[in-house]
């Protein structure tokens, strides 16, 4: 099997990469059948962003602090584990953000697109779904739209719902909502197009973040699932992403 190895900057990840490459050999991404990424969940996302155009499946191994998307690290039987792995295919969100100077910024997000206040003052957002106004004013620290794959990350920390991978829905979740105080967000069809308009942008500046790509001082942000882009994660047999999401819902 032709494997391309990549690792985060953590010493344990770099050490693991060197040991695995020596044992199994390695090829450049352009010649590989699979990418093995060593690190944590954050590095897994970086790997997908860096190699999205390759279309290669990524098999993650945990050598970081958070490993929800990663398999256990072991130097034994790597090829056999990859061959028996279960594949999860996800589609990222496409963020199109316009800043106060009229510039347009486009970025993809595997986990979520979040809008966040930049100052001590609460953000004020207007939310439309598929061109129809749904919430005239949300006063908050921010809001996010999450994929199922990202629903156990920032979305869960903001008290959003955990979404099974095959549910074909997105989570729209407020972050520290002040008004309307009791609004807890919504579940949207995966085909939905979400538009955020920033109210009082000069007084209450807002940034938009697609995974780790930030655009500051935005005026409006449009978010939709990009079905033209498919990302493939590999998980050890019996430990699929669907199983992990299910288990997370029963954790105490």
Task: Walk me through this protein's architecture.
The structure is a single chain. This protein has 252 residues and is α+β, with helices and mostly antiparallel strands. The chain is built from 5 helices and 17 strands. The strands form 3 sheets. The chain has a 6-stranded antiparallel beta sheet, with no helix packed on it. The relative contact order is 0.18.
Q: What labels describe this entry?
A:
alpha+beta, 6-stranded antiparallel β-sheet, elongated, 5 helices, Tumour Suppressor Smad4, 252 residues, Rossmann fold, 17% helix, 2 domains, single chain
- Classified in CATH, the superfamily of the largest domain is Probable inorganic polyphosphate/atp-NAD kinase, domain 2
CA-based gyration radius: 19 Å
Structural class: alpha+beta
The parts where pLDDT drops under 50 for at least 5 residues are none
Percent helix, as a range, is: 10-25%
Largest sheet: 6 strands, antiparallel
Please state the second-level CATH architecture of the largest domain.
Sandwich
What is the topology, as strand order, of the major beta sheet?
Answer: 6-5-16-13-8-9
Compute the average pLDDT.
94
How many beta-strand elements? 17
End-to-end CA span:
40 Å
